[in-house]
Design a protein that fits this description.
With 346 residues, this protein is mostly helical. 38% of the residues are buried. 55% of the residues lie in helices and 6% in strands. The protein is built from 14 helices and five strands. The protein has a three-stranded parallel sheet with strand order 1-2-3. Strands 4-5 form a two-stranded parallel sheet. It is globular. Helix 4 packs across helix 13 (281-308), helix 5 packs across helix 8 (136-150) and helix 10 (226-235) packs antiparallel against helix 13 (281-308). The structure holds adenosine-5'-tetraphosphate.
Length: 346
């Protein structure tokens, strides 16, 4: 192909939209994190420019043991690589390795109203959950999240229901800033993945499955082995009716297991009901457990291999931070200029 033709082909390709998403190193990711986030992250790489962040600064809103936080940050990075995040085509980085996030967060905090932050339901929920540590970071968390997104001019942010309010405040902050200082930030949209059921706790199926839940039987970890997965599903809370039937309001336990099974098999609820008609919960739970174990086992094997190569993981994170910082630093310089901070001599 001639150079002119090649240039024309390149120009004809529409610019790919940019996605930013993060996960906190507050524990080993669960089946919920996998279905709701990580699995989709791997799939999105085909169609979008993706930046994926281990949100270590966000995790500080809850008290963390320093050595555990450090270890989990590397483990989580290795797990994301094992689950298919491609560090060449996507940017995988640790939030605190790109200091511009906190620089922008301060500027945005000065452009965010106290009243708006007090309306965040997650702040109210998390304050109730940790009444002994209702810290300022918990309150201003949405501002840091806004900075994470706006600093890259992300077009799309994959969000669960619990994060839609934070995306709204991000858009508000961006809009207000743009009105005051001229067009600066892209207003991001939420991205609802095609497959992304909300996975509930196996012990209390009206509560979402969470990696920081103190009850180890409430979750399946992405790194659990087959025996552990089977044992946890066998213990999953169901009901006394004994029939596999989807009814989220009255049979939350069974319905959650059906949602998990459906996610991995692609079967509809009707097909699952037909498959297990006349069978007990024992058979059903075993089938769900085996299906989940089949999906997670290759990731677990790859995870052990990658984690053993500490230099590789750290190298990926170093490269990711440098690539993210190139974009982020440019945005912070632009914002500083716009708001009137005197630029230092370079
Ligand atoms: N149960 C879930 N079902 C579906 N998706 C879920 N996510 C979390 N739990 C479920 C999605 O995982 C992504 C990363 O989450 P996070 O680590 O940033 O924080 P989180 O949502 O608070 O997740 P956890 O596991 O509940 O963490 P802790 O226990 O620390 O609070 C998000 O995209 C989230 O939607």
């Amino acid at each position: 192909m001639s150079e002119t033709n090649q240039n024309q082909t390149q120009q004809a390709q529409p610019k790919r939209k940019r996605i930013l998403s993060g996960i906190q190193p507050t524990g080993t990711p669960t089946l919920g994190n996998y279905v709701g986030a990580v699995r989709n992250w791997a799939l999105l790489q085909k169609d979008y420019d993706c930046l994926y962040m281990v949100a270590d600064l966000h995790s500080l809103t809850v008290r963390e043991e320093p050595a555990a936080l450090r270890r989990r940050t590397r483990e989580l990075s290795a797990l994301l690589l094992a689950a298919g995040i491609d560090p060449v085509n996507s940017v995988l980085f640790v939030q605190s390795h790109v200091p511009s996030h906190t620089q922008l967060a301060w500027v945005l905090a000065c452009n965010t109203q106290y009243g708006q932050l007090t309306r965040m339901t997650q702040f109210k929920d998390k304050s109730a959950k940790h009444p002994d540590n209702v810290n300022g970071g918990l309150f201003t968390y949405p501002v840091l999240m806004a900075a994470d997104i706006l600093i890259y001019n992300a077009d799309l942010v994959p969000v669960g229901e619990d994060q839609t309010q934070h995306l709204e405040i991000t858009r508000d902050i961006a809009q207000r800033f743009n009105n005051l200082y001229g067009p600066t930030f892209t207003l991001p949209d939420g991205y609802v993945p095609k497959a992304g059921a909300r996975i509930m706790s196996l012990a209390e199926p009206t509560k979402k499955m969470s990696k920081s839940d103190p009850n180890v039987n409430s979750f399946v970890l992405m790194t659990d082995d087959r025996d552990t997965i089977v044992r946890k599903f066998k213990r999953a809370v169901t009901d006394s009716e004994g029939s596999v039937r989807y009814d989220a309001a009255n049979k939350p336990g069974v319905s959650n297991l059906m949602a998990i099974y459906s996610t991995f098999t692609g079967k509809s609820m009707e097909e699952i009901e037909a498959e297990f008609a006349g069978k007990g919960y024992g058979d059903f739970k075993l089938a769900v457990a085996e299906t989940v174990a089949d999906a997670l086992t290759p990731i677990r094997t790859e995870y052990s291999r990658i984690l053993a190569d500490k230099a590789y993981v750290d190298g990926v994170l170093k490269d990711g931070a440098a690539r993210a910082a190139r974009l982020a630093d440019r945005m912070v310089a632009k914002v500083y200029r716009k708001i009137g901070l005197l630029q230092p001599e370079r």
